[in-house]
Amino acid sequence: MSREPVSVLALYIHIPFCGKVCPFCSFAVLKDNPARHQKYLELLKLEWLLISKTLQFDFSCLKSVYIGGGTPSRLKLDELNGLVHWIKQIGKVPGNAEWSIELNPEDVSDEYAQELVSLGFERVSLGVQSFNDRHLQSLRRQHQAAQSRKSIKALSKAGIENLNIDLMFGFHGQTIASLAEDLQETIDWNPNHVSVYSLTIEPKTALNRNALWKTWIDENEALIASMYRSIVEKLERAGIFQYEVSNFSRTGFESQQNLVYWQCRNYLGLGVGAHSYCNTARWGNVKRLIDYQRAIESENLPRDYYEELDSTMRRDEDLMLGLRLKSGIPLDEFFLKHKIPASVKWNNYLEALEQNMLVEQSSGQLKLTPKGMLLADEISSSLAATLS
Length: 388
What we know:
Layout: E1 6-7, E2 10-15, E3 17-18, E4 30-31, H1 37-54, E5 57-58, E6 64-69, H2 77-91, E7 98-103, H3 110-118, E8 123-129, H4 133-138, H5 145-158, E9 162-169, H6 176-188, E10 193-198, H7 211-219, H8 221-237, E11 241-244, E12 247-249, H9 256-262, E13 267-270, E14 275-278, E15 281-285, H10 289-297, E16 303-308, H11 311-324, E17 329-330, H12 331-337, H13 347-355, E18 359-362, E19 365-368, H14 370-373, H15 376-387
Parallel strand pairs: 1-5, 2-6, 2-13, 3-4, 6-7, 7-8, 8-9, 9-10
Antiparallel strand pairs: 10-12, 11-12, 14-15, 15-16, 17-19, 18-19
């Protein structure tokens, strides 16, 4: 890649530690051991020094700093303080950049919430998943609903106005009625952002070995689709509008980090399992801490993969990520940018998708319907295949 400075619009820092690894989680995580924290934070700094020898980065237009995981709130306040100050030193972060952090309810105290504000965090994503204790137990979450409520109060009291509540749906034991209760309580807390994820059973997770849960999902596709439609309808009636497949916000409170991802703009990720996208290349780090540490201590970048995107890959990336946004993609602009002949503009295929109420066209934009959002990846893959 060129030595010309890469203008980065979003910075992601991955903290892999979790009090308990959830059975559905496929991210780069591991059981927390506080003795490992400081060493890991030092490895992050060393990774930055290594990658800085390969690429120059320009953070002057940075829109977002996002500390995710894992569970960043497993870090002690002095550790988090040191991490924030280091980020500000390496990046010269603009004053208007959005600072976000992911928290688990069991880690939030009044003191922790107040310290987040003093460190400059203005956006918090709280891993509630459900306000139903029976469901939380079924999902093997560590917290109880009372802790979520206490955490929300503490964050509000500290002055966090941009709160995201993370919910989950489409899992064994959940009903339309219990989902409606979760949504109503979420709305009652008046958050500015809500993320609602359908449970997916990934390989190499504990749930992948649970035949009951896998069978339930396979046999209840229609119910899960109904749940999704109810989520969109109920949140939008409350003024929390969908702007991406799984994300909803009040106007002006969309996640800046996520918008950078979905608009195919440059971002840098540091830490175990972190991904990056810069100009015409993308790469991802190894997911095991021991592999990450060995690579860095050998003065090698801890990459699991690296690829330069050719024109076809960039076209398909634009298509896949653009269709995940509620606004969709501007068709004429997309065809012009990727030099797609008029003869292959999907006319017959789009007509079939419209008849099945999966897509709609409005003012030159191709958009997925709520029904289509559930099949976003399949639809974008099929559209891309017709261009090959």
